[in-house]
Amino acid sequence: MAGMLSTLTGENADIPRAKTTGHFTCYDIDDVHCSAACSVILCRFPGTLLILQKEPSVACPVSRDRPGLRNELRVRKAMMAPILLWLILVVSLLVTAVKYLMGIILRFSFPGTTARKDYTYEPTVSVIMPCYNEGRTVYETIASIAESNYPNHKFEVIAQDDCSVDDSYEWMQKAQRDFTNVRIRLGRNEVNSGKARSVCNALALSTAEVIISIDSDCIFHPHAIRELTACFAEPEMGSVGGRVGVRNPNDNVITAIQTLIYYSAFQLYKIPENWTRSVCCISGCLFAIRRKLLLEIEPAIRARNWFGVQVGQGEDRFLTHQTLLRGYGTYINNDALCWTTVPNTLSVLFKQQLRWRRSIVRDFFFTLKTLPQHVWRLHPNALLTLMLVPLGALVGLLVLITALTQDPLSWTGPLPLLAALAIGAILTWTIKKYSAREAVAHPLAFAAYIGWSMVSNLFLTPLALCTMDSADWGTRTVAPRNSRTREVPIGNTTG
Question: Among 25-29, 405-409, 459-463, which range has the highest average pLDDT?
């Protein structure tokens, strides 16, 4: 027995004075856990080592000598769940940090992250613009597309109105009359159907080789179409996206934060995904896809539902996901530019982010449901992103609740603030040097991102989980105007 105890506590350790009580002997040593060895059972807890003969009728005397220890063990087991949540969150954050670091390395050191472009490749293109309650903005969007340097006879604009209750359709008609250098076709849904089905309805009017789906509130660079189509020179490329910049970076702190996030996401975070041609979400602001592939995916788009309720949101993430599952590559071409006006109030930003969070959660459940397909068909880089990003959002909620209940002021320490200020300063300098149009006037504004991240984790995720059946366009919902009935055709019409 002494030899065995020496092995446990050190070869030359002094053996503590024994205390014998009934069937067992106690030694005062450090805290360890119960285990079995040789012909005895070792029951260890703070300050005592209980050595018990291996007899079926004799139980470990933990509860007899330490009545409170059983509750202590229960507490320790209960702590395992928060520890597991923290572990998942740390892994998710670590993967995110590694992706940003890899983005920096790959961007400047590995040309292979850039797709092979062939600017002589000029397929026919249909630019599809779904619209709901955008008003005059649709006119400005079509105007920017009409100024594209792509051959006019090889592209067209198909504007699909989703039963807007404002004057959006009239602005579409005005654009059709004013920009005669390109073919502009107009369509209207018979009922409000959401962006995804609006794209499918407009697809019926197209015979082009490449479909470019855009948002109706963006302004496009003249080279955008040519940059997107050039990437389809790689035969295995299925979908290509462009970079989305911010038109109003200095409206206030809210827009400044979004500017820094948009820039870092496209210029760094997406680069490792570009490297393996496995971008997991191409922005719907500027999304190009082969027409034959979109026709293949169309039935799945129309069939999307959440427990029987049709889903019309998150078509960009869904299309990207479906492209990958069909064995095609996905890519972000940062030379294909468009600019969007980001929300400048917390209420509008919250609605937008809630819509995006629903899309992330739906996509996560879809990934879990079809996990075997993902394991065998997708690149590990894509699978890692599809799993850890939404998992991090879900776990972040639970971790934040745990942290706030234990120490509500834990997030107010200097480290998060200093980290946010440093990141904001670096990104502000980078944007000012490489994209002056998006230069942020107040780099210290990024420190407010700490507060927004708490709101995002604490409220967006549970609200998204509770409103997964929502079909609302979110930021574009307005009250119907009081005006005369518009004499416009119902259903798809060709202009």
Answer: 459-463
Phi, psi at 228, each rounded to 5°: -70, -50
Q: Which long-range contacts (CB under 8 A, 24 or more apart) does 66-69 make?
A: 69/45
Confirm if 387 and 494 have CB atoms less than 8 A apart: no
Distance CA 240, CA 286 (A): 9
Q: Per residue, what are the HEC states of 256-281?
A: HHHHHHHHHHHHHHCHHHHHCCECCC
β-bridge mates for residue 43, sequence order: 50
| CA-based nearest residue to 380, from 242, 241, 275 | 275
How many other β-carbons are positioned within 10 Å of the β-carbon of residue 469?
13
Domains of the chain with bracketed CATH: 2-62 (no CATH), 87-466 (3.90.550.10)
Written as one letter, the residue type at 300 is A
Tokens (6 digits) for 322: 């479906």
**Distances in whole angstroms, Cα of residue 487 to Cα of each of 172, 304, 355, 483, 490:** 14, 33, 33, 12, 9
Is residue 281 within 8 A of residue 318, CB to CB? The reply is: no
Residue 246's φ and ψ, nearest 5 degrees, are: -110, 125
Sheet strands (E) in 176-328: 183-188, 210-214, 218-220, 237-246, 286-290, 305-306, 309-310
What is the tens place of the pLDDT at every residue in 249-267?
999 989 998 998 899 889 8
Determine which helix (DSSP H) or strand (DSSP E) holds 321, and give its type and residue range. helix 315-325
Half-sphere exposure (Cβ direction) of 478: Cα atoms closer than 13 Å: 14
